[in-house]
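User: Second chain of the day. Same drill as before.
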Amino acid sequence: MRRGPYASVPTAVATTAAAATAAVAAATITTWRGGAASGSDSTQQLIQQQAHMQQLELTQQLLQIQQQQAQIQQQQVEHSQRLAHTSEQLTRRVDRLEDLISWHVHVELRHAQGEGIQLPTVPQPQDYPPPPPSPP
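Assistant: Same format as last time:
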């Protein structure tokens, strides 16, 4: 497992960022020591390298944000799947409760008719279609 400031960045980007960091450090040391490059050229090169470093840092931040987005999307998919499963279970339970209530009413009506008690008519129980299959 990699460690350091570029641990969460893909290897190619981390290697490039590390190389750029080393290049900026070397250029800075060369400039401080009065290196071979002329003043304006080394200053321009240092500015370009710093701009490149900023771009690399922003790229690293972007990659981290994209990775976080992917994780959030995966969590949302898993949550949706759990909700669909729970909804299916609840639908089956409600259907069973409706069947139980219908049976219980039917038994009570038969019992009341046997006793000679007149009750108002109750609509016939309905058969509900099975729930649609859950999405993939």
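The longest helix spans residues 39-115.

User: Great, on to the next one.
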